[in-house]
Amino acid sequence: MTKVLIPLVAGVVFFILWEIQFFHTIFQLKTYQLPLPSVIIEAIRENFNTLVNFMGYTFAEAFFGMLIGSSLGFLVALLATASPKWGKGGLTIVVALNAVPIVALAPIMNLWFGNEIGSRIAIVTVTTMAAMALNAHKGMSNVNPLSLDLLHSYAANKVQVFRYLRIANSLPYVFTALKINATASMIGAIVGEFFYASKGLGYLLSNSIKVAQMPLGWACIVIASIVGVVFYLIIELLEKIFMRWHPSERA
């Protein structure tokens, strides 16, 4: 009960202080620079249909980009574990791609995939590959030597070792990567929309800032945050469902 109550009370106090302009006084901000919560809620109410429509578009970019990126990252981890000599090079390339800033990726992906949803999906794909590849590879590599010896004593081949030991052992790491990617994918999609898009929360946020409609801009931020949190919680729920056998979940 305390775990829920303390954050809830802290959140309520935070928004009350924001509403009475406590933070505006401390940081010397005007209300047009940092709109009040009541004004942001009003902006959400007035633009609800547009925000929901654009939110669906952005979430589609984030979801499909994360799905493709995580799948490719897992495949790279499989190859790196099965063939360390060649696979480590693949991990290095994935990490190098992840180090490229989104602002540099956006124009390149726009040239390759056009000014449609495909370019943002490609950006999210690149930004979510590394977390999955590194985490899954760690899970497949850090297996219990006794479990490995047991499978070898039963004459298990390499495919069986992967199926019954390495992949199963990697699942906690895979879900950790998915939870990281759940938030990273939303960031990638929104930032990508800042540069080349005609729809989405990032596009609406960028335009709102340009025309000084800050309440609408903050409404986009609030909606994106809610979607990101819900996306994370869905991954966490799936983890509890598929990881019931794991000691951490049984505890």
TrEMBL record:
Main location group: membrane
Membrane-spanning intervals of the chain: 5-27, 54-79, 91-113, 119-136, 173-196, 216-235
Residues in ABC transmembrane type-1 domain copies: 55-239
Signal peptide residues on this chain, from the entry's feature table: none
Any GO BP annotation: transmembrane transport
A Pfam family hit: BPD_transp_1
Protein family according to the UniProt entry: Belongs to the binding-protein-dependent transport system permease family.
Protein name: ABC transporter permease
Organism: Ureibacillus massiliensis 4400831 = CIP 108448 = CCUG 49529
Taxonomic classification: Bacteria, Bacillati, Bacillota, Bacilli, Bacillales
